[in-house]
Every structure is written in structure tokens, then in C-alpha cells.
Automatic annotation (TrEMBL), chains A, B, C, D:
<keyword id="KW-0238">DNA-binding</keyword>
<dbReference type="InterPro" id="IPR050624">
    <property type="entry name" value="HTH-type_Tx_Regulator"/>
</dbReference>
<feature type="DNA-binding region" description="H-T-H motif">
    <location>
        <begin position="29"/>
        <end position="48"/>
    </location>
</feature>
<dbReference type="InterPro" id="IPR009057">
    <property type="entry name" value="Homeodomain-like_sf"/>
</dbReference>
<protein>
    <submittedName>
        <fullName>TetR/AcrR family transcriptional regulator</fullName>
    </submittedName>
</protein>
<dbReference type="Pfam" id="PF00440">
    <property type="entry name" value="TetR_N"/>
</dbReference>
<dbReference type="InterPro" id="IPR036271">
    <property type="entry name" value="Tet_transcr_reg_TetR-rel_C_sf"/>
</dbReference>
<dbReference type="InterPro" id="IPR001647">
    <property type="entry name" value="HTH_TetR"/>
</dbReference>
<feature type="domain" description="HTH tetR-type">
    <location>
        <begin position="6"/>
        <end position="66"/>
    </location>
</feature>
Length: 194, 194, 194, 194
DNA sequence: CATGAATGAGGATTCATTCAT
DNA sequence: AATGAATGAATCCTCATTCAT
């Protein structure tokens, strides 16, 4: 019973995720969500406070998913460069396996709607603490370029996700332009020049 | 007379731009646009076909602005690396001078709404033909890394705009982390390794 | 044109008045008001800000009507007792001629809804300033009983309106129990005992 | 067990009473009643048939309370005038001790909602049979003014309750304007003039 | 006895759009 | 060119009520 409830809640979030990806955040309507989820509109209010809550929970659940994935697949082992490589691979893998959630996160990040969802600072941000710390250490150790780790991280993040999107869209051929080459590029950008 | 009309049209687009930036594309309503523009709702239909048209024209006008700016401030002169540097500077300058239009473009790019606006391929994309050509040439000449020029361009674009945003938000201090350092990073990523 | 607008506005208020009288304030629904007024629901919003505004304006318009009536039909001429008599007659006449508006006012006065309508003190109260002043003077002059004029006024007001209601409902026969007898009663209550 | 049920039922009525007083009859919602009573919405249907039933029972229970109070505190002993005095005192006392229930009764009396509650004639009216009979007798005996006893009763009732309300609201000072003076006024109105 | 889930109907309000002027 | 009036459809949300447990 409890399980069934949670299932239905999840189902609503899934349906909303798909809707956001295909029609944008503006495209989300409770009428449409209810219809797509196969429930009555009023039923939604058992699981969520209001529309903003649905959107918020949708975002948080996808953030959770990507966070869990990275937590599981990325474990820093060696130098900052090595860790950056591992992280890039994990991120790429996620973007390939779960392009929907990736797209959703990116859409939220670009939209001012995120700011209206009264999320805590922590909730609003992707949790990249671990890799961020590694990068920071790398900069301090002189292994990485003297640069705000945030800029390095964003550069790497967007480069990887863009690459993954184009691979998925078959705009880029991963045979002639392999992931390793992209990672090399990121490393070249990040490593401290001799 | 003609001129006056064009002014009013422009005014509507400006108002819409601000609205998209502050409230997202979903936040745009003709009611609000009319009120913000100080005209009557029905009046809008003299200048635009329907709501989708306003959104579309808003996007196109901002794309035009950034395109014009780069056209004017970026003229390729030398090697691919040199051109990339010039381009990065022009882009940074634009992002600092006109953060609103920059933000609008980025928001559109991340949103599926763009796809619903029946824009031609050409209309939908930022016109970076020139720099794209230079980069392509640079790759062919062996000056740049063997990599899809698109990936290089995206990497550079996002790195610069992210940096500019954080400078504007005072999250990054441009004295300790100057633009030149960011450009160095981009170049390191792009240049073909020895 | 202007006239037509005002007519429609008035029409909405009239329809709302009838609805409040027959079904209570809780019975008012924009759907029903629109249907009864023969206009579309959204059209209402051209004339009124929201539902509360309709209810408020309905109350105010009826208050205005009773106020105008009394202003026109009651002009104090002599002693407090004489004036009280004149006032009672005017009030009775109004209650007979326009029982609907009378009923509406009474319903509002008994309901806490009135307090939620953010009316100014002045707007919320029936404007009985004139007779109130006369009564006060009468008390000071020793003509009337030493009593808060408000209590006298309320006593008189309710006695007259109750009487009028019962006459209208044919619960009381005005031949065997004429208005004059009721007024005598009110006077007996108000006059200072010898 | 049985007792516990009755307690809960009473609790629901109490909660509803408060809600009606503070927000009007229109303000009553089963959702809110349930929340305020600390029970689940569906639970209400164990104790009451439907929403109308709750409202109806609320009214009846308060009518019962005021009736019981007067039954207990008012016992006619002498002439009509003396009885009227006793009754007025009892009524005043009740209005002071239990202003909520008094306010509820008055609100119902002014509202057409009462008519929709399919109450019998007897249920709908306040049970003032006793005093009514005394007044009628008084009129017949020539002790009271020749007047419909109903008008006398209403006059007296409203005068007392209005006075009590203003005393409670501290709009009237009971020291300078004591209850006895108000009763004198009522008596003056009721007594047959010499 | 008690409740959480579920729902259809209806609530107020806003929207994009059209039309007469 | 400009606008105020008008509206139907759609928005989010609440309501009273039922049902399975």
C-alpha cells in the first residue's frame, strides 16, 4: 500500500519529467500531467502541495538521480587529473544512459524558474562537492592551472554533456571523435602549463 | 510614422526580453507584456501575428543583436589560435555589456520551446559561421586539436559566458582570475598538442 | 457607450443582490452571476476586480440606495421626538418599497463577511449621522431618555424593519397594528420619563 | 464508547460554530472542519449525513443551548412587566456568558441559508413560547401596549442583545449606561400608556 | 470506528484572441 | 493606428462525497 503510493508519486514525477523535456517547463499543465499519468486532476493534490511543488520535486528527484549515479560511479583515486578523467567518464556515461534527466537538469539550470521554486542553496545546486574539492586541491598543489575550480568544472561539465548530446543525436561520430579525445582536451585545458 | 511604429515594435520586444529573463519563457503573457509596454492588449496584434510570433521575434532580434556585435567586433586576422582569442574577447565583451540578451539566448538554447517556434535551421542557430570556418581550417592545418570544431566552439563559448556571468555576479574576481587566463585555458584545450 | 457600460455593471450588481437575498452570501458564484446576467464569466472581470469586489460593490450600492432614500425623505424639522417619528416613517416606507435592498443590508450586517471586505469604517456603516446627531442632542436637552443614542437608534431601526418585514409577509395586519402604534412604542421607549 | 462518540460529535459542532462566527456560513468547509477538529474528512460522515446536516445540527445545538439556558434561568413569576424584566436579565446574562452562540443564532436568523436547511417551523424558530405567552396575556389583560407580542419580543430581544454586544465590545460602558436603564426603556415601550 | 485514497464537479481567475468602433 | 469590450477555453485549485481497507 505504502509502496503503491510511492509508485504513483514517482509516476507523476516521471510523467512531468517527460513533459518538461518535450515541451519545456512552460508546457507543464496539471490537466496534462493528470491525463498522462492516468489519474484525476484532483488526485494530484494528494501527492503534491501545488503545481510549483510538482515542478520542484521533479527537479529534485532528477538531481538526486544524477547525484546517486555519480556517487556510485565516481570514486576519486589519484591525482586531480586522474580524478577529472574518471569524473568525465562517469558523467558521459550518465548522459548517454539517461539523456532525459540530463536534459531536464540543463533546462532548469538555464531557466529563472528555478529561482522561483524556493529551494535552499543546497537544493538548487548540483552536488559536485567531491570533484570540486579534488580540483581545488589540484590547483593548490600546482597540478592544475591557476583558475577558479568552478570555471574548470563548468567547462568540463558542459563540454562532456554537449559532446554526449551530439553523439546521441548522431551529429558526432564517436569513432572518429572518441570520448578520450574530448577528455584529452579537457585535461589540456585544466593542467598547469609547464 | 513608419519609424514610430518600428519603435513601438522594438519596445514590445524589449519588454518581452526582460520578462523572459526574469520570469522565464513561461512567464510571458500578453496581458503582462501589454501592461509593461503601456499599450492595450489588442494593440499588440497590429505588430505581431500571435503570441508565438512575439516570442519568436524576441529570440530573433536578440540573436541579431549578438550577431551584429560579433560581426562588428570580431574580424579574423591571423592564425586559428589568434582568431579564437579575438573571438573570445569579443564574446566576453558582449556578455559584459549586454548580459540580458546573452541570458535570453542561453535560456532559449536550453529550452524545447525553441523547437516549437517553426524557425528555419538557419534562424534557430547562432550565426558563428565565420569563427566556425576558421576553427575548421585550423584543425585541417594541424594548428588545432583533431576535434569536431563544434565541440571546440561550444567549449569556448560556454567557458567564456560562464566566466562573464560570474564576473558580473562578483563570484569571480577578474583581477585574480583575469580573462586572459581563461583564454589561455581555452587555447590550451584547442591547440594541437606537440 | 459609457452609459451602456454602467448599465451592465449595475445589472451585475442587481443580479448579485437577488442572489444574496435568495441564497445567502455563500450562494454567490461567479458562474451563477454570469449566467443570470447573461454574460460570459470572464466578462465580469472587466467590471470588477474579483469576486470580493462584486460582493463589496453590491453592498455599497445598496447602502447608497438606502442612504439616498433617507437623505431625500427625511429632513429633521423639530424636536428629537418629532424627528425620530419622521425618520421611522421614512425608514418604514423604504423597507416596504424596497424590501430586497433592506434584506441585503441586514444580512450583511449580521455576517462576518462584511469584515473581510476591507471597507473603511465609513463604508462599513450605514450613514445615519443626521438622525444620530438629533438623538444625541435630544438626550442632552433632556428630551430623550438618558441612554446611548446608538442603543435607541438600533432599537428603533430593528423594530421598524422587523415590523415592515412582517407586514410584507402578512404575518402582521397593518390595520389592527398600524405603523403609528409601533412608532408610539418607539417614542415611549425613547422619551425621557417625567 | 457511546459517550466518546457523542463527545466527538459535539466537538465537530463546536468547531463549526467557531468557524461560522469567524468566517460566516460560507466559510464552512468540511476540509477545514476536519482539520480544525483533528479528524479525517471522511470520519465526519460517521457523525453527520452531509454538510447541510452539520450546519443544521450546529444551528439546532446552539438553539438548544440558548433555550436550555433561558428555561433554567427564566421562570415567570408575576405580571407581564415583571416577567419581561426577568427575561431580559436572563437573556442579557446569556449574551454575556456565551456571546459566540448568541452571534451564531443571530447570523442564522439573518441568512436565507436557514430556509434551505429543511427545518420544521418549530425547529427554525427560537423557542420563546413561554415569554411569548406571558406577553400575549399581558396585552390581553391591558397591562401591555396593544401590539403584536412578536413585535414587542423582537424589540426587546434585539435591544438587549445589541446592548450586550456593545458592552462586550466596550463600546458602551455598563456603569454609565446600566442594564437596568435599558430594561427601563424596554418596559416603557411595552407598558400600556395610561 | 476510523482513515487515506480517489474523484467529478465546480470554484475563481487568466489567457490569447477577435471585434466593433 | 489604436483601443475597450467581449469571450471561450484553459488555468490551478478546492469541495463534498464515496470507497476500500
Amino acid at each position: 500500500m505504502r509502496e503503491k503510493d510511492e509508485n504513483r508519486r514517482q509516476h507523476i514525477l516521471d510523467v512531468t519529467t517527460k513533459m518538461i523535456i518535450s515541451e519545456g517547463i512552460s508546457g507543464v499543465t496539471l490537466t496534462k500531467v493528470a491525463k498522462a499519468a492516468g489519474i484525476s486532476q484532483s488526485n494530484i493534490y494528494i501527492y503534491f502541495k501545488d503545481k510549483a511543488d510538482i515542478v520542484k520535486q521533479t527537479f529534485l528527484s532528477r538531481k538526486q538521480i544524477i547525484g546517486d549515479y555519480l556517487m556510485f560511479h565516481y570514486s576519486p583515486k589519484g591525482s586531480a587529473i586522474e580524478n577529472l578523467t574518471l569524473f568525465a567518464r562517469a558523467l558521459y556515461q550518465f548522459a548517454i544512459e539517461d539523456p532525459d534527466d540530463m536534459a531536464l537538469i540543463q533546462q532548469f539550470n538555464a531557466s529563472p524558474v528555478l529561482a522561483t521554486l524556493d529551494l535552499s542553496q543546497e537544493e538548487a545546486e548540483l552536488n559536485f562537492d567531491q570533484i570540486f574539492k579534488e580540483l581545488k586541491q589540484g590547483v593548490e598543489d600546482g597540478e592544475l592551472r591557476e583558475m577558479d575550480p568552478d570555471v574548470i568544472l563548468t567547462m568540463g561539465f558542459v563540454t562532456i554533456t554537449t559532446y554526449a548530446q551530439r553523439v546521441a543525436a548522431k551529429t558526432i561520430d564517436p569513432v572518429t571523435t572518441p570520448l578520450s579525445a574530448v577528455i584529452d582536451m579537457i585535461i589540456a585545458a585544466s593542467r598547469k602549463p609547464a
